[in-house]
């Protein structure tokens, strides 16, 4: 399975690029997006069928009994059920997964690197044990969000990622974790 992740800032044309990928082969592609109206508008210009466009919440129903050649995830980092979608795609093993998104939050670089380096060889529960006595509820949630995410798969091709990841993990992420832990302790 080939995974390509285009991470760019807001309003940079990600949905348009995702729609372009979809119209190349709409019969063998499932397009998962929140922005159905935009996809419909662009797609109508080039004609075709929208039966394979779905929302993140309807993804599992759309894919039952199917193994699509391509899956496109538009604004993936904002899917509330991205862990479920990630797991389902791992089972289905399409030829290509195209992911278009802006980062949903700032990630702590240490936790991000820890998950990315250990994910292939260690289960989620194993990662929690490996993290040791420094594990808090906030860190556990962060590990979960990164573990079930294409962003930390070591074979994901990240386009524009280095620049975008600088926005994802920096000192603000550390402050965000500290705030979460203080809030939890009060």
SSE layout:
Elements: E1 2-7, H1 14-24, E2 29-32, H2 36-46, E3 53-54, H3 59-63, E4 70-74, H4 82-92, E5 96-101, H5 109-118, H6 124-131, H7 137-147, E6 156-159, H8 161-168, H9 171-185
Helix pairs in contact: 1-2, 5-7
List its traits.
single chain, 186 residues, alpha/beta, Rossmann fold, six-stranded parallel β-sheet, 6 strands, elongated
Give the uncertain stretches in residue-range form.
Answer: none
SSE string, helix = H, strand = E? EHEHEHEHEHHHEHH
Tally of individual helices: 9
| CATH architectural arrangement of the largest domain | 3-Layer(aba) Sandwich
Query: Mean of residue pLDDT?
Result: 86
Summarize the amount of helix as a percent range: 40-55%
Shape descriptor: elongated
Q: In the CATH hierarchy, what is the class of the largest domain?
A: Alpha Beta
The main β sheet shows up as:
6 strands, parallel
CATH level-4 homologous superfamily of the largest domain = P-loop containing nucleotide triphosphate hydrolases
Estimated structural class: alpha/beta
Fold-level CATH name of the largest domain: Rossmann fold
The strands making up the biggest β-sheet line up spatially as 3-2-4-5-1-6
Instruction: Please give the number of β-strands.
Output: 6
Termini gap: 45 Å
Rg from Cα: 17 Å
How many domains would you count in the coordinates? Answer: 2
Provide the β-strand percentage band: 5-15%
